[in-house]
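Ligand: iron/sulfur cluster. Inputs:
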Amino acid sequence: MLNQETSHPAQWWERTGNNDKVKCLLCPRGCVIAPERIGFCGVRKNIDGDLYSLSYGRPVALNVDPIEKKPLAEFMPGTTTFSLGTFGCNLSCSFCQNDSLARGSYSEAEFEHYVSPENIIELALRHKCKSVAFTYNEPTVFAEYAIDIAKLAHENNLKTVLVTNGYITPEAACDLYPLIDAANIDMKGFTPEFYATMTGSELQPVLHAIKYFYELKRHVEVTNLVIPERNDSDEMIENWLDWVEENMDKSIPLHFSAFHPAFKLLDVAKTPPDTLYHIRDVATKRGFTSVHLGNI
Ligand code: SF4
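Predicted complex:
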């Protein structure tokens, strides 16, 4: 079990209630957390009236990956990226493709091994990677750790990569996103109803995050996991492409990935390849120049 000595002070929070509760301001969920309780993401804990990160320095997945696997189609192709993830996620997608990390818990795993930001950079350099990637689970929930690693990465001529659901407050995004060189951000389904019923969150903050990252003039790609009869209608895809055209541009790399039955959505068939080919046709006919299909 982690204790105060092995937890890291969190950023982005304020005291509330009788000053013993804390409100986390890292993501739009805005959890109000009572003493000794943990926020929705499972990795931010109120200890004696202060908020702590339980995942700082405690990656549970470390790998050297091809950058294309993130997926990033047009950022330093042919290079490898040192990838890390922790436990925890701030969404509750019924179709989660990685629930062992998203819903994993440090107390259950009795995971005590500390990996400092300096250790991460040493490992990345030792494995001759060109970048460090925050990935696997949702990096927003370990933003303090990602920020410290990103600063050190740049001091060591390494690029930084973020693979995220984009569900973050503007305040926290302003601290994290400028330290990121390339991101793949999920857009999980282009209606507020889809986000509410299928992910337990909201579409608008995600669109804000995508646009903010684009306006920082960093490399951004966007992934839409296409689920049969949930988010694959022509209307929804066309509306999404309208938004990209109006808020970014038609050269943004767009990924459309096949869903495979997982977590609570085991009764939905995998996405037929023809659905993805059709979406690619629609996008390319509209003039989008970088459309990629995944998991086929
Ligand atoms: S980051 Fe975690 S604790 Fe903070 S508001 Fe989001 S879900 Fe809640």
